[in-house]
Structure formats: C-alpha cells, structure tokens
Design brief:
With 193 residues, the protein is of the alpha/beta class. It has one domain: Rossmann fold. It contains 6 helices and 11 strands. The strands form 3 sheets. Strands 3-1-6-7-11-10 form a 6-stranded mixed beta sheet, with helices on both faces. The chain has a 3-stranded mixed beta sheet with strand order 2-4-5, covered by helices on one side. The protein has a two-stranded parallel sheet with strand order 8-9. Helix 5 links the parallel strand 8 and strand 9.
C-alpha cells in the first residue's frame, strides 16, 4: 500500500471524535495527515466539542479536548494531497465562509479525489458546489443544505455510511467503524488481519 497524503479541515468546535479519531486512525495505518484550520499554523490548537445523543430532539454539546494542528493552513496546496477529510461539529458552518476552504474543497471535488465528510462536514461540499447529483448522508439537520445543493439525501441510521464513488459520508461519530473503513476502501488501503 502506498501511503496517501491526506488533508483534514478542522476548526474551533469541530466535533471531538470526528476530528481526533479519523486523524489518529489514518496515521495508524500509515498515511500522512495534515490537520489545518483557517488563520492557524502548525502547533496552534482548536478546541473541539463533544456531541452526544442523549434522547433530546437534537444532540447535546459539551466542551471537548484541545486538538493540535500539525500544518499551516496558509501553506496548503490542494494539488499536493490525495484525499480530504471534513469532520463535523460547528466548524464547517463557519470555515466554509473562508474562500480558500471552498477553493480547497472544490479542487478535491473536481479532481475526483477521495473525500470523507461526516455530520456537518457536507456543508463545506455544498458551499463548494460539489453535491449536485451526488448521494450523501449527514446529520439530519444538515439535510436541507445538501438537498438545496442538489444532492440526493439518504436518511440512514446514525451508525451507517453512504458511499457514492469517491465520496464517503456519514451522519455522526457512531458511524466511525463503517465510515473510516469505507474511506480506507476508497483510498485503496489494505489492512492485513
């Protein structure tokens, strides 16, 4: 397996598990991952949020861990990367306002490179015009954004995944086993038993 160079777009109040778990898992299997955030450099931190499903009408939110970025956002050249990961949480809602974030996402969309987006992550893909005609899932409250961007929204259980070619989406962190496995499959990563 050839190691891939993967970009992870983070931001303050990105969902804790959806940021840390894919970052760590992708490193664990041998890929290089650059975690970045607009207006931040390597060594800077973002604060995450823990979203939990406790029986209310929507998730609850608690302060999460600090997550240390390992690359400068201003140095990102999307052409240098093989794949993109977009965690959920509140970060996608506001980092999509950054023109370079949209430009980065558009590069991966137009190049047909593997993209993994979870929870609110598809908001960035919608902002970049990358959901038209695509089958996606997301956190249900984000489904209007996806539908309005021309996607076919697929309502799946919280622990499930939707794969449409190079695009791997999931509703929330309970889907990590299926979401990360599907993304590794799209990447061509083989894990020996």
């Amino acid at each position: 397996m050839a190691a891939k160079k993967i970009l992870l777009l983070a931001g303050d109040y990105a969902e804790d598990y959806e940021t840390m778990v894919p970052f760590q898992m992708l490193l664990m299997v041998g890929h290089q991952v650059h975690a970045v955030c607009p207006d931040k450099k390597a060594g800077d931190r973002v604060i995450t949020a823990v979203h939990d499903f406790e029986g209310d009408q929507t998730y609850s939110e608690k302060r999460g861990h600090y997550f240390t970025l390992n690359y400068d956002f201003d140095k990102v050249n999307a052409e240098d990367y093989d794949a993109l990961v977009i965690p959920g949480g509140r970060a996608p809602e506001y980092i999509r306002l950054n023109p370079k974030v949209v430009e980065i996402a558009r590069h991966f969309i137009e190049a047909g490179k593997p993209i993994a987006a979870i929870c609110h992550g598809p908001q960035i893909l919608a902002a970049a015009g990358g959901l038209k005609g695509r089958r996606v899932t997301c956190y249900p409250a984000v489904s209007p954004d996806c539908i309005n961007a021309g996607a076919e929204y697929v309502n799946v259980p919280v622990d499930d995944v939707v794969v449409d070619g190079n695009l791997v989406t999931a509703p929330a962190w309970p889907a990590h086993p299926r979401w990360i496995k599907a993304f590794l499959d799209v990447l061509g990563t083989k894990i020996e038993p």
